[in-house]
Fold:
Amino acid sequence: MTEAAIEWRATNLVALGEELRNKISRVTQQFEERASIARSQDEASRLRQRLSQLVDSIQMSYRSQLERLTGEQESDESLYDTTLAGIDMNRLVYRGDRKALAELLADAEFSSTVNQLLSDLKPYNARKDLLTKALKITRGMMAGLYHVTDHCSKTLKLNAEIEVYVNQDSRFNAACYPPMKDKVLLFLTSALLEKFSQQELAFVIGHELGHYLFEHTRFPVDYILQNHGGQLSPLHAMKMYAWIRNAEITADRVGMICCGDFDVAANTFFKLSSGITTAAFQFNLKDYLAQLEDLQGEVSGQEADPQDWFSTHPFNPMRLKALEVFIQGQTYHQLTGKTGGRLTSDQVENQVSELMKMMEPTYLQDTGDVGTKARRFLLAAGFLVVGANGVIVRSEVDALASVVGAQVSPDEIREMFSRPVPEVKEMVQSLSKDLTALMTGVQKLQLVRDLIVISYADGAIDEAEVNCLVWHCEGLGVDPRFIEQVLASARRGVD
Structure:
């Protein structure tokens, strides 16, 4: 390592430590002030518990950055609290879920923004809320339901008691509330209990327990996006949505482990997505999975809906296909005490990852001519967007580096930023002509989307940046109205 590199790393390590101390100090001061005026000891205690969680989250984020600087990257397996259950969680989790979470935690800007938002969140007593608004189901009331929860608990080797609550609702819905130390708070609507068999309930309950085990509530996504979504850049909003979509795949796997029957799981998916429960309707699994082929044809067409990138759930046929792949794997068979499985763990993860790309079409990983030119275009066009208003903001440069990824080195970014603007414009015009012929409509839309993400990294887009984005749209043959569609989707989110 060169002297300059050593000095750069040392400087960054010192700055990182100072920033961590300052951030924890600010958050601690805010919570202590609120605790000092709390109306009761319980409220003060909950505030301090929330403070402890926030400090842990901040430290985890900074630890990831520290490991990247020192070259001692910790295994992603440390992301989860494996004391919650005896089942091998690190083999069960979907790789895309783990990777997306690790990237969020390693993103200092995201962590800083979210931690600040959560510092304003009042402590929430989930059990009190449920006891107030729902009916607590005891074993004496529904022995059959507790037969299901006991089965799920035994299968997953849970180390906490499951407490079930129900509310009158004609919709099919279930949720695991923010966890307590010794209880899992499970909520079900009355419609689920009335219309679903015990095996089907095992899938639904297992799915919700998956969210509990893998702490998918560590970022209260609904609260953040509904109340403070405008404070997140589109890049961070998309990363958060991508994590939640991937988290659903993990939760489905836990549901499958608890249910143990793919046909039952498929029928459960059908009921949840269609609302049809009558025996007069004959569900056909082959026809339902064929819907995925129709969907793939639509997604690969020339039109794209930016709301897909800001959706919290994968398409239902995709989820079922991902589950079908999972049960063919050796990991599923081993976790359920069986032998066999024709797919290795890597084969399962790779096939599921390919399915998930339907909601996140990619071009940057292309190793051919399209990928090379697309990366070059994004770097050059991103430089023009970043400097469109005459002021280069660090957050936009960081967003550019994050979007282009590891395929483009820091030296290449610095080299591009040293070029004269007219020269870069000529490069972009030439690349635009090539990419218009080489890329699909969806790929070009994603290219523009990534430029919008870069321009919005500082929380605002001014007229000069909009004009630059419009120029890029015209060069690629993309309707400029797409710019506002992406921004609108990022701001409001999609249920």
Summary: The two ends are 49 Å apart (CA to CA). The beta strands are 135-137, 161-167, 174-176, 183-189. The CA atoms of residues 164 and 444 lie 48 Å apart.
